[in-house]
Design a protein that fits this description.
- The chain is an alpha+beta fold and about 100 residues long.
- The protein has one domain.
- A four-stranded antiparallel beta sheet has the order 1-2-3-4.
- The model has no long low-confidence stretch (mean pLDDT about 95).
Amino acid sequence: MIDKERFHVFNYVKKEEYCASMDGMRYMLRKKEAEAEDGEKKTVLEVIIWPEPYCYAKTEEEKKQRKDFVFSAQGVEEAADWLNEQYMLQKPLWELSKKL
């Protein structure tokens, strides 16, 4: 599980994609431009999860799950909560992917 007290990746994500894995679940945090409801562009924190064993580029798109958060340190904390939640909700998938 991700410890929010030690998960300080916001400054890194400002410049680069942050990729890691957690017991069969791979994930990426990255800065993304998105269109707001008023048509304006805004920067968001995109979080993507997918099962092991392959990297992001080699994993089929239908196996990836995405969620956007506010692009801030608070958004990173919310992303950590979502990652932990998805890890627990989909644990059988992550366990199976470790065996491949």
